Amino acid sequence: MSEVVRYERRGLVAVVTMNRPEYRNAQNSAMTYALDAAFTRAVDDPEVKVIVLAGEGKHFSAGHDIGTPGRDVDVSFERKAVLWWDHVGKEGADQRFARESEVYLGMCRRWREIPKPTIASVQGACIAGALMLAWVCDLIVASDDAFFADPVVRMGIPGVEYFAHPWVLGPRAAKEVLFTGQRFSAQQAKEWGMLNRVVPRADLEAETFALAEKIAEMPAFGLALTKKAVNQAEDLMGLRTGMDSVFGLHHLAHAHNAEVGGDSLAGQDARSMRDANRTS
Ligand code: ZN
Questions:
Q1: What is the pLDDT of residue 61?
Q2: Which of 60, 105, 110, 272 has its CB 3.0 to 4.6 Å from that of 122, i.e. a possible disulfide?
Q3: Helix (H, G, I), strand (E, B) or coil at 75
Q4: How far is ligand 1, taken at its centre, from the CA of residue 254, in Å?
Q5: Which CDD domains match (predicted)?
Q6: Per-position b or e across 63-89, b if 16+ CB within 10 A of its CB
Q7: How many CB atoms lie within 10 A of CB 271?
Q8: Could you tell me the distance, in angstroms and rounded to a whole number, from the CA of residue 36 to the centre of ligand 1?
Q9: Which H helix or E strand runs over 240?
């Protein structure tokens, strides 16, 4: 079996690549923990100045794994992001809150605080849980064929777990994206301020590395402090506390779905979500 995440060094840049292209890089927990290990390796390597996050194949990522044969929601991993009990063996909201606090919200926050600049290099699909990965990166370079969506309102859920939408899109665009669940283009995302660069597909890698190498000329500690400064400013604009309050609404929605229909995702799976998005 090939590695779900690849790690390589190119000069001063570490490249972390999601590697489940046969499933459009759907993120299972195995991938989450492999990403965490790769980021940790890049942080621990004093030669690495900048980290690039990429996806192998046609698509950056289709989001969380809600239907591949490698789905592993009932598997225990050594927890890294939050000090909470393991979700395995728990029931209902207790189970969901434990798991999502660790592998979704907690991991995303942990990666947002990586003390080196991170750049997401995005092509093709960047859907729902994939937005979370792109958003925790400091910069986003997308190819002109990239498309984005958070369609989880169709499940009755107010957005993915890492609720950065109003901060990265602005409130009005955030509402449009969530209310319709429709795809939006790289150009649209750029206009809303969500992306740094939109480049031709053939140039994505070169443009991402050119930017990474430019940043790598700066002193490491200065970059770390600057990143922290902007992140702190964003938190003062309510990002962190806002996200905490919305995480409660997110889990109210999961619990409501489970209470009225017996399934926390309102009976939706990868196929039904894709089909609904095709016809919308
Ligand atoms: Zn959730």
A1: 98
A2: 60
A3: coil
A4: 7
A5: crotonase-like
A6: bbbbbeeebeeeeebebebeeeeebee
A7: 10
A8: 20
A9: helix 239-261
Q: Is the pLDDT of residue 279 over 70?
A: no
Q: Which residues lie across from 13 on neighbouring strands? A: 10, 50
Q: Domains in the chain: how many in total?
A: 1
Give the domain range for residue 39.
5-279
Compute the average pLDDT of residues 69-75: 91
Return all residues near 47 (Cβ < 8 A) that are at least 6 apart: 9, 12
pTM summary value = 0.96
CA of 162 to the centre of ligand 1 (A): 9
CATH code for the domain of 105 = 3.90.226.10
Task: Pick the closest to residue 169 from 180, 275, 207 (CA basis).
Answer: 180
- Helical (H) or strand (E) element with 122: strand 118-122
- Which residues are close to ligand 1, an ion, with C-beta < 5 A? 100
d(CA 132, CA 159): 10
Cα 41 to averaged position of ligand 1 atoms, centre (Å):
28
Q: How many angstroms does the Cα of residue 157 sit away from the middle of ligand 1?
A: 8
The whole-angstrom separation of Cα 49 and Cα 52 is 10
Pull the structure tokens for residue 231.
């992140």
Contact indicator for 143, 123 with CB cutoff of 8 Å: yes
Q: Give the Cβ contact number of residue 47 at 10 Å.
A: 10
Residue 151 Cα to ligand 1 midpoint, Å, equals: 13
Q: Is the pLDDT of residue 1 over 60?
A: no
From ligand 1's centre to the CA of 264, what distance in Å?
A: 8
Contact 82, 99 (CB under 8 A): no
Tokens of 34: 């492999």
The two structure tokens encoding residue 79: 């927890």
Cα–Cα distance between 26 and 129 in angstroms, integer? 9
